[in-house]
Amino acid sequence: MLLSYWHATLNQPPLTGIDLPPTAGIVVVGAGVVGAATALWLARAGLKPLIIDRYGPAAGASGNNGGILAAGLAENYLAATARYGAATARDLYALSLAGQRLMVELIQQEQIECDLRLHGNLNFAIGEAQLTLAGATVAALQADGFPAQLLDRDAAQELVSIPLGAAVSGARFNPAAGTVHSGRLVYGLIAAAQRYGAQCSWGVTLQRIVVTNNSLRLETDRRSIEVAAAIVAVNAWSGEVLPELAQQIQMVRGQMLCTAPVAPFIACGFDASLTSTGEYGQQVPTSQVLFGGCRAIAPNNDVGVPAGEVSPEVQGALETGLGRLFPTLAGITIERRWSGAMAFTSDYLPIVYHPYSGLFAVGGFSGHGMPFAAIIGRYLAEAVQTGIFPNALTPLRIDRPTLQT
Fold first, then answer.
1. CB atoms within 10 A of CB 271
2. How many other CB atoms are there within 10 angstroms of residue 344's CB atom?
3. 182-195 and 33-44 are packed helices; what angle lies between their axes, rounded to 10 degrees?
4. Cα separation of 259 and 13, whole Å?
5. Which pTM value belongs to this model?
6. What is the rounded distance in angstroms from the CA atom of residue 96 to the CA atom of residue 121?
7. Spelled out in words, what is the top-level CATH class assigned to the domain 122-177+250-344?
């Protein structure tokens, strides 16, 4: 499997693990950013959760993404308003904004060294039609009280010290955004949870959940474990253990590349719609540029393709796209290429599922889990203690009208 920039530069000792016990109080299945944040909230509450994962920290989407921590939804705000309705779209955007700020608080409170930089995010407009859409989006966000700014080409260029491509007509700037080292973020969240009493068991694959007489048994490739409660946060692999999610959450391969170091030219994260599936990236503190997306170039948009390898057509489109945004980077040496398994739903919102007493599951973040991780994790930690589905997560229920198989 190709190693992402985040895993290649983690530079941290392995997190301690224990043998899988026969019983546990609360188990968090999945050590991505959502599972890690959920475990931290549980541990802070004194509940000493057990984290299990088939590989290790950030092995899925969390350790193979663009490292962008930006408030917002996977869909454009206008599209989200049309799909979910104005009130629900506003509530969801507010949830993501609160989640982005809460993750920043967790990083600062737990002193997690993850290269957090709060410089906002630039969504480049390609052509006049996209700039018009950006203007309408900014107006709608501002009308609902959310931070957003519209920049013309000259204003966008002021934030970038190398020439922008000729097709860039301006940008929508999101001040409620930052960039992080994704691997160190997840590592730091789990390490903080361990300081509060959480434990981890690595190399454990959950195979089946058995519910009998209001008790839960997790059957794994190691042994069965009786638990009082469990939170399943395995995202793209949700359908493997909860068949009712198999038709709702679809694995999608996302591909990225990492260039050779180049003189610093942009402090904030950035994204653009060079293709219909979108592109994104950042320049990391070590001066390489990370750039991902271009799934639209792949057959069937890389839907249902397991992660691990990359394809020449998508990687070629990424190199071309990077040169379209920043012409001086055309032909730059590529140091690393990788892919990760994202999880999409039909309406681009995650699912929070509560099928049985003591059991919750979450997945399907559609490439936008970073701003939701801290706040959904907190609500799940509270819900597993109370047994009550949180009102704030009602728009994410599996029986919502916008979700289709």
1. 25
2. 20
3. 20
4. 26
5. 0.97
6. 15
7. alpha beta
Tell me the one-letter amino acid at 277. T
Residue 405 clears pLDDT 80, i.e. is over it:
no
Three-state DSSP string of the chain: CCCCHHHHCCCCCCCCCCCCCCEEEEEEECCCHHHHHHHHHHHHCCCCCEEEECCCCCCCHHHCCCCEEECCCCCCHHHHHHHHCHHHHHHHHHHHHHHHHHHHHHHHHCCCCCCCECCCEEEEEEHHHHHHHHHHHHHHHHHCCCCCEEEEHHHHHCCECCCCCCCEEEEEEECCEEECCHHHHHHHHHHHHHHCCCEEEECCCEEEEEEECCEEEEEECCCEEEEEEEEECCHHHHHHHCHHHHCCCEEEEEEEEEECCCCCCECCEEEECCCCCCEEEEECCCCCEEEEECHHHCHHHHECCCCCCCCHHHHHHHHHHHHHHCHHHCCCCEEEEEEEEEEECCCCCCEEEEEECCEEEEECCCCCCHHHHHHHHHHHHHHHHHCCCCHHHHHHCCCCCCCCC
Cα–Cα distance, 257 to 291 (Å, whole number) = 6
Structure tokens at 30: 């999945």
The domain 5-64+182-249+347-396 is placed in CATH, from the list 3.50.50.60, 3.40.50.360, 3.30.565.10, 3.30.479.10, at 3.50.50.60
pLDDT tens digits along 192-251: 999 999 999 999 999 999 998 878 999 999 999 999 999 999 999 999 999 999 999 999
CA-based R_g, the chain, Å: 20
| Chain position carrying tokens 């599209």 | 79
State the span(s) of the chain assigned CATH 3.50.50.60. Answer: 5-64+182-249+347-396
